[in-house]
Amino acid sequence: MLADLKCYVALFFQHPDSSVAQKSPIITVKLSERIHLIFSVIFLLCFRASSGDMGSENLLSQSNKSVNLRLSNVSIYTAEVLEIEADDPKLHVLFVPGNPGVITFYKDFVQSLYEHLGGNASISAIGSAAQTKKNYDHGRLFSLDEQVEHKMDFIRQELQNTEVPIVLVGHSIGAYVALEMLKRSSEKVIYYIGLYPFLALIRPSVTQSIIGRVAASNIASTALSYIIASLGILPSKALRFLVSNSLGRSWSATAVEAACTHLSQYHVMRNVLFMTMTEFKQLTKTPDWAFMRENQSKIAFLFGVDDHWGPQELYEEHSPDDCLGSLIFKPHLVLTDLQASP
């Protein structure tokens, strides 16, 4: 599988310096290309997870369907869901975002993933509870564990009658959430993919230390949420200009719009920081490597070399000397210039 992935990516990108790929165990990927590598990874993993039900010709077929955004009332709590339904799906991909869990950040991702899978997989991407454009849950704060349970309720409520296998895909802390879901899920969930997973705290990380201190302080979290929410009073064009020329310099227009419409809401930022606080408490525990080893046949991770949340060191600590190494797409592939959220 790793050899197939390496060959596929080499063909996909037409790497100009084949000698580098032959001599070095690391293939560097340009910033503009890294998202395509993610699609390539999921493309191949979903193909394997389907147990041969999807032929390569079908995977490469084209579809012109668009992503839909809707509200889902899961366990009486409201979440935003991006979805795109295949006419004749061979599997269902359920995507869990990082934090912020504003799902519209991932609209382009979901659309491109659907197209990469040739319209043969239905895709649902469920946002974090209470991180919605409107304050549907009246300021309620959701912990990491509650977000896990919220996603499990989504499977029970909306995917219970799905006739095709389910593949879980999680990004950053969403990889932790999806991994917990895998532990509790039925046989219907056949595969799990963690993209730049945030599974444990990195003690030497200055970035994590600063964010952790802010999130742990109720006063600091409240004040920061009010400050960011106050930007919402700016005219929409001014706010887009501000975001595009600060945090969102490399973002798509869709991501910039998501930041302007959601992160400028007090209830969203307050939930982002509250969830972060509970993440930092929960992730002081050692990841459940035993479970991952026992289920390695249906688990895979994609790490990045300079990711503050799922760094290369986490990979090196647990592979390749033990069987966990088979779960991780390294040393064949390492993303550089990675920018991930908690």
UniProtKB/TrEMBL annotation:
Keywords tagged on the record: Hydrolase, Lipid droplet
Record localization: Lipid droplet
Gene Ontology biological process terms in this record: lipid storage
GO CC field: lipid droplet
Pfam families: LIDHydrolase (PF10230)
SUPFAM superfamilies: alpha/beta-Hydrolases
UniProt key word Hydrolase: yes
GO molecular-function term, one example from the UniProt record: lipase activity
Transferase among keywords: no
InterPro entries: AB_hydrolase_fold, LDAH
Family: Belongs to the AB hydrolase superfamily. LDAH family.
Protein's UniProt name: Serine aminopeptidase S33 domain-containing protein
